Amino acid sequence: GQQVMQIPQYQHVQEGEDFTTYCNSSTTLSNIQWYKQRPGGHPVFLIQLVKSGEVKKQKRLTFQFGEAKKNSSLHITATQTTDVGTYFCAGLNSGYSTLTFGKGTMLLVSP
Amino acid sequence: DGGITQSPKYLFRKEGQNVTLSCEQNLNHDAMYWYRQDPGQGLRLIYYSQIVNDFQKGDIAEGYSVSREKKESFPLTVTSAQKNPTAFYLCASSIQGTRDKNIQYFGAGTRLSVL
After folding, report:
1. In the prediction, which pLDDT does B1 show?
2. CA–CA separation, A59 vs A55, rounded Å?
3. Least buried of A17, A31, B92, B103, by fewest C-beta within 10 Å?
4. B113: buried, middle or exposed (CB in 10 Å: 19+, 13-18, 0-12)?
5. pLDDT attached to residue A1
């Protein structure tokens, strides 16, 4: 079956430090999406990557999709306390109509 | 104000009881989904529906049932056959037929506990 692995499971950083979470799929993906869930909240869509090798930026967040379309990363530069939450990747396989979510990376930022 | 509304926010189930979680959307989305979230487990798909009067099982459908009689509504019933129902339940919807299909818009969730 489809599997999407995400690491690390948890990371605690000091405000101002960088943060990266990685996502790996057992199969080639059509696209990959990233979501953020604040503590006590619900997941909110951040971005979708479709093309091989694609890189997209949203302010301090940089998203990459691997050349083989089997892995992805989210990098946050100079974390802020507002970045606290769990970041999920979700992959869509060709021929499937549903996403497979990774287990998420919980980010804690200390001031 | 468009969005997805889930109710109730908190729900308690007694042993042997069926309970129904409500999910309503006014985004005019064709597809709707139910996920279960447990600590450290991410989101697992229970059921999904891409069109009215049709739905498919997800990865963990046992002990759950759904209906899709209207485009706007996709209620989830947690039956007594679900032996470990305590979890956070999330409903989502997505548009179909465009490059943005499968982008999920989530409701605020329902926290279900067993008494």
Report:
1. 56
2. 13
3. A17
4. exposed
5. 66
